[in-house]
Amino acid sequence: MKTVPVIDMQKVEGLGGDIVKACEEWGCFRIINHGVPAELMAEMKVVAASLFALPEEIKRRTLDPGPGKGYVGRNAISPFYEGFSIDQISSTNEFCDRLNVSAHQREIINMYIKAIRDLAGHIGQKLLEGSGLDGDLFDGWWCQLRMNKYHYCPESVGLTGAGLHSDPSFLTILQDDESVNGLQIVDKLSGEFVPVNHVPDTLVVNVGDIGKVWSNGRYYNVKHRIWCFEPKTRYSIGLFVFGPTDFKIEAPSTLVDAIHPRLFVPIDAEEYRHVRYSMEMRTGGALDLFRTTSA
């Protein structure tokens, strides 16, 4: 059975090239030796579960009218899904204040966000290195932490908890559920669904639409879904690295040449999210609206 690449983040030689190759061929890969302690990951899942257990009126204090933001309750379109997000990881204290979280829970959330954001920075540096560049790719970028709960039951088996979509971010770092599988990606070549089953002490990295823009079409903005195989509650926690807040995303000049002409105009990451949601184009098709005339 085909499966996504597994990359050792402590590899000394060729790590950047391995990550770039995985982004191009799969748009998804697992990472080991990533530096986020297993104990912290387990504690963060406990915190997430406790937040979802809060009364509905308290959870709704984090509602946000923006697309893909704030608290999302179960509804007719997504009857099994519920989600929280800290829409700017710099505003963690505001999120915690609204939910009256304990000092211990606040500490775990802050520790987890720092660890996973540091990891994102490391991946960004290796992406640059693998492309013959250097620097801090994600310096100052807007990041969102989203906690997901899938209320699976006997009636949900064989249905989707989250429908087919690509992520609107550059990349997503996902802590998936250690006991309930469900993530499936679309293979770039065959178009078939490939399961991304849990592997202990690992994290999943997905490339999103903005990653495809920055790479001038080289990276695969992988389409994926969450499938229900068994009636067990499923949790996941994802960091979405969306984009810079003070300039637009475009491919570096080193990724543009006669063979690879520039495919996309400069894109504002927040504007792109609004276009995607308002036009209900959630599988990457919205990128066609931002193609250059030459593309």
Automatic annotation (TrEMBL):
* Highest taxon above the source species: Eukaryota
Determine if Oxidoreductase is one of this entry's keywords: yes
Identify this protein by name: Fe2OG dioxygenase domain-containing protein
Tell me the GO molecular function terms. metal ion binding; oxidoreductase activity, acting on paired donors, with incorporation or reduction of molecular oxygen
Give all residue intervals belonging to the Fe2OG dioxygenase domain.
141-243
- Cite the entry's keywords alphabetically: Iron, Metal-binding, Oxidoreductase
Per the UniProt entry, what species is this protein from, by scientific name? Tagetes erecta (African marigold)
Q: Which family does it belong to?
A: Belongs to the iron/ascorbate-dependent oxidoreductase family.
List the InterPro entries hit by this protein, alphabetically.
DIOX_N, IPNS-like_FE2OG_OXY, IPNS-like_sf, Iron_ascorbate_oxido_reductase, Oxoglu/Fe-dep_dioxygenase_dom
Query: What Gene3D superfamilies does UniProt report for this protein, alphabetically?
Result: B-lactam Antibiotic, Isopenicillin N Synthase, Chain
Q: Which PROSITE patterns match?
A: FE2OG_OXY
